[in-house]
TrEMBL record:
Its cofactor is a divalent metal cation. It comes from Actinoplanes awajinensis subsp. mycoplanecinus. It catalyses: 3-dehydroshikimate = 3,4-dihydroxybenzoate + H2O. This is 3-dehydroshikimate dehydratase. Mg(2+) binds at residues 451, 524, 601.
Length: 635
């Protein structure tokens, strides 16, 4: 694997905070951004020693601006400025300087002049044993493409002058970068990597505010990196990401996220295609665990709700205050030892949990300590970026008597009463629950967990999206952005290729202002039913309230869509929300928020609908807001 680098500008905090975070995350080398050095109270020598003490090297000092194409009267000052920076780099022990293409309005469009000036500057640098890497900014005054920057480097023809290729500047302007593979690799002095969402906006603003780590955006980072390496380039792959959120996030977390992106990128370079991100380690949701929280009402409310939905409390954990509730393949754990009511954990069904755990470790997922007692299932668990616990497991039915177990064939087949899918002697997680002996309630139509909706902390969203795609081997699906009552919300769905695991992530686009109520966005669990009217009527007859959907919503639905009159009437009568796509349609019911941070959604996918009803989220969020207001106002 190539050496990995990160620019100090990617991270938040003082220069020391940034360097310490880069070292802790395992980077080999750093780019020192000039502004970060200037702002540091430490001398260049102290910074050099600090970096060496961390086991890092400095691979680049940057940027040096407005060098080439300067009017002759200004170029004298450019030379003087360069000398000062070369002396600084001597003190710092930095061997390569980045010069980015000029943006000054007085820059002269004359390639011969520009090449000659670059040659002169390279000659000055060579006197210090320093190399210059010349980078075309996508918004450079005259030089804005990699081809043009290479042309000037070739013309200048000085051994101390080479190219800096920055994936953002290249890919933001063109898909035609194959020619980079034909460049002499030893003339590429430095490679910077940044991804970005595909946005139709001014390229400077796009670059300065929206860059992302590789594989977090929509640019072809794997293709770019493969092409650069094909040239024979053997230097570091260094991240240079200007991002408004990362600039205010914990640098230690950002640095780990950054390193994860490079590891995943290397995997993607080695194995093309989204499949490289994962090889279907996750084949289903084995269970979702809801924290009950400290409010004494929440547990009973959840139990009432699950009972009304047709779930049965089938098991009690042997050593923890955790209940198991089941209906068909939907399994929900209620954990009253958790202080917050939220989706505290979930388990993924995996054909090879140990392989899934190894993959997670390779991608720097934080392992959770195994807190099992002897004779309890040894489940591997990792922490998602927001702290949600994720288990990898293979679900086996509760152990069969020993004699029978020995004669039962092992295999990867779906668990049935007759087969165990865990190796002999290894407990399945269901064995950790003592049966309650409760008679299973008649089903209300609920068949499975459809998806989990995890509200993300403001500064963890891009990290979470990459985490779920790489660590869990899921793929990115539909994305949306909508205006909720207290600001814009961004949502992304991720799933396995077969749509057995679906998760949606959401985040406020901007940090919430003071006017917004001080409640956290709720998490929710969506259950699939094959008979929504039946599930709804079971809830109604149990007296469980559903979220009230405004009449305006139904009027708009009628205006937008030409629905069959019976369906139209049914949607209104059920108090459901509706969406459709090319494959089918979707009916959604919601419970009010329970315990501050959880609600359930019950959906029916008719005819193979593939979406998540994102179009309905603004109305649903406003309805939840109304419900909270009325729950709290004295009547
Ligand atoms: O936004 C800039 O000015 C800037 C500076 C240096 C770089 O390497 C770069 O890619 C962008
Ligand atoms: Mg750059």
């Amino acid at each position: 694997m190539a050496r990995t680098g990160i620019a100090t500008v990617c991270l938040s905090g003082t220069l020391e905070d940034r360097l310490n975070a880069a070292a802790a995350a395992g980077f080999d080398t750093v780019e020192i951004f000039e502004a970060d050095l200037i702002a540091s109270p430490r001398s260049p020598e102290q910074i050099r020693d600090h970096i060496a003490g961390l086991g890092l090297t400095i691979s680049l000092y940057q940027p040096f601006r407005d060098a080439e194409g300067a009017p002759p009267q200004r170029f004298a000052a450019t030379r003087r400025r360069l000398r000062a920076k070369l002396e600084l780099m001597d003190r710092l022990g930095a061997g390569t300087l980045l010069i980015c293409s000029s943006v000054a309005p007085d820059t002269i469009a004359d390639d011969d002049l520009a090449a000659d000036q670059l040659r002169q500057l390279a000659e000055l640098a060579a006197g210090h044993g320093i190399r210059i890497a010349y980078e075309a900014l996508a918004w450079g005054r005259h030089v804005s493409t990699w081809e043009h920057s290479w042309d000037l480097v070739r013309r200048a023809d000085h051994p101390a002058l080479g190219l800096c290729l920055d994936s953002f500047h290249v890919l933001s302007r063109t898909d035609r970068f194959a020619g980079i593979a034909d460049l002499p690799g030893d003339r590429i002095f430095f490679v910077q990597l940044a991804d970005a969402p595909r946005l139709d906006m001014d390229v400077l603003q796009w670059s300065r505010h929206h860059r992302l780590f590789p594989l977090q955006g929509g640019l072809d980072l794997a293709g770019f990196t493969r092409t650069v390496l094909a040239s024979g380039y053997a230097g570091p792959l260094s991240l240079e990401v200007f991002n408004d959120v990362f600039r205010q996030a914990d640098p230690h977390r950002t640095a780990v996220d950054a390193r994860r992106s490079l590891i995943a990128l290397q995997d993607a370079v080695d194995t093309p295609g989204e499949a490289a991100l994962g090889n279907a380690v996750s084949t289903g949701i084995a269970f979702a665990e809801l924290g009950v929280g400290d409010d004494t009402d929440t547990g009973p409310q959840l139990e009432t709700l699950l009972t009304a939905l047709g779930f049965t409390h089938t098991g009690q954990h042997r050593s923890k205050p955790v209940q198991l509730w089941e209906q068909n393949t939907a399994r929900i754990l209620l954990n009253s030892g958790v202080h917050e009511s939220a989706i505290h954990a979930f388990a993924l069904e995996s054909t090879d949990p140990e392989a899934a755990a190894r993959r997670a470790a390779h991608l720097l997922a934080a392992p959770l300590p195994r807190r099992r007692r002897q004779s309890e299932a040894d489940l591997t668990a990792i922490a998602a970026p927001d702290g949600t616990e994720i288990f990898f497991c293979r679900t086996a039915p509760p152990s069969l008597p020993a004699a029978e177990t020995r004669t039962t064939p092992l295999g990867d087949s779906a668990p049935t009463a007759a087969t165990r899918t865990t190796p002999l002697g290894q407990h399945g997680w269901l064995d950790d629950f003592l049966p309650t002996g409760e008679t299973p309630a008649p089903t209300t139509g609920v068949t499975a967990i459809d998806h989990l909706s995890l509200a993300q902390p403001f500064d963890r969203y891009d990290e979470a999206a990459l985490f779920y795609r790489t660590v869990l081997g899921l793929i990115g699906d539909e994305a949306s952005e909508f205006a909720a009552p207290f600001g814009l919300i961004r949502t992304l769905a991720i799933r396995d290729p077969e749509r057995r695991v679906r998760i949606t992530l959401s985040v406020p686009v901007l940090r919430r202002g003071d006017w917004a109520p001080a409640v956290r966005h709720p998490q929710h669990l969506t259950l699939a039913t094959d008979d929504l009217p039946r599930t709804a009527s079971a809830l109604r007859s149990a007296g469980v309230p559903l979220l009230a959907i405004p009449g305006n919503y139904y009027d708009d639905l009628d205006a937008r869509l030409t629905l069959d009159p019976p369906l139209r009437t049914r949607i209104r009568d059920l108090g459901a929300m509706y969406d459709e796509d090319a494959h089918g349609h979707y009916l959604q019911l919601f419970t009010p928020v329970i315990g501050g941070r959880i609600f359930l959604e019950i959906v029916q996918r008719v005819g193979g609908y593939r979406g998540y009803g994102f179009v309905n989220d603004p109305v649903r969020m406003a309805a939840h807001r109304e419900q909270r207001l009325h729950a709290h106002s004295p009547r």
